[in-house]
From TrEMBL:
Gene Ontology cellular-component annotations: nucleus
Domain Homeobox: from-to ranges: 1-50
Keywords carried by this UniProt record: DNA-binding, Homeobox, Nucleus, Transcription, Transcription regulation
DNA-binding region: 3-51
Protein family membership: Belongs to the HD-ZIP homeobox family. Class I subfamily.
InterPro entries: HD (IPR001356), HDZip_class_I_plant (IPR045224), Homeobox_CS (IPR017970), Homeodomain-like_sf (IPR009057), HTH_motif (IPR000047), Leu_zip_homeo (IPR003106)
Pfam families: HALZ (PF02183), Homeodomain (PF00046)
UniProt-listed Gene3D superfamilies: Homeodomain-like (1.10.10.60)
One GO term of the biological process aspect: response to salt stress
Key word Transcription regulation present: yes
Source organism (scientific name): Cucumis sativus (Cucumber)
Functional description taken from the UniProt entry: Transcription factor.
The protein, known as: Homeobox-leucine zipper protein
Length: 211
DNA sequence: TTGTGTTTTACGACCTC
DNA sequence: GAGGTCGTAAAACACAA
């Protein structure tokens, strides 16, 4: 077994070097203890660099996913807002014309929001639309009995429900918790722990230059 | 062959326990 | 003071032109 391979094997077992192990290893390989120590120092530095690269990749993937989800939500929001405006306009027109306000058939994209307006249950959700619109008792949505309209109080249109688009984050990565602390480690520690388990990197040196 | 980029070894400065 | 990290120099190596 080459000296480098022996060192790599020792490094995998324990990346820190106690004095006794350093002496034993140096004797075994015919090297100066100082050389063994330096090799471990440099090997730790290389490992750290690789680890930073892996961490960066994980974070970038997570970021890209979030950006993608955000864009989808923005687009959907625009569609829903235009539908609300259109329906409101129709309601007002009918009311002014003396007709009875009726709600058109539910479309897939507007299903949630329309359900909020008409206060009916959405079959697939099993939850009342009103419940989904607001997380608390003080709903920002004001329902008019005669002609339902969603009054924008300044809060988001999005009710307090789970968004599937946002649920496929990397393992261990989750949205902001109630018990948030200021240390970002809580957010990344699990994710990094996962990547730490696959850290056998780097090619072996082409040549052992020591005497 | 040569220029260039990458990797490895080694060291000094500084930090932590 | 021992042993750690960090930054860097120098040598070795890989590879395209």
């Amino acid at each position: 077994m080459l000296k480098v391979q022996m060192l790599e094997k020792n490094f995998e077992e324990e990346n820190k070097l106690e004095p006794e192990r350093k002496s034993q290893l140096a004797k075994k390989l015919g090297l100066q203890p100082r050389q063994v120590a330096v090799w471990f120092q440099n090997r730790r530095a290389r490992w750290k660099t690789k680890q930073l690269e892996r961490d960066y990749d994980v974070l970038k993937a997570s970021y890209d996913l979030l950006v993608s989800n955000y864009d989808s939500i923005v687009k959907e929001n625009a569609v829903l807002k235009s539908e609300v405006a259109s329906l409101t306009e129709k309601c007002l027109a009918k009311e002014l014309g003396g007709g009875e306000a009726t709600i058109p058939s539910i479309t897939s994209t507007s299903e949630l929001l329309l359900a909020d307006i008409t206060n009916i249950s959405v079959p697939h959700s099993g939850r009342k639309a009103e419940d989904r619109l607001s997380s608390g008792s003080d709903s920002s949505a004001v329902i008019d009995d005669n002609c339902p309209q969603l009054i924008d109080s300044g809060d988001s249109y999005f009710p307090n429900i789970e968004y599937p688009q946002c649920s496929n984050l990397p393992n261990g990565l989750h949205m902001e918790d109630d018990d948030t602390n200021d240390n970002c480690n809580y957010l990344f520690s699990d994710m990094f722990a996962a990547t730490n388990q696959q850290n056998q990197e780097g090619r072996p040196p082409a040549l052992w230059a020591w005497p």
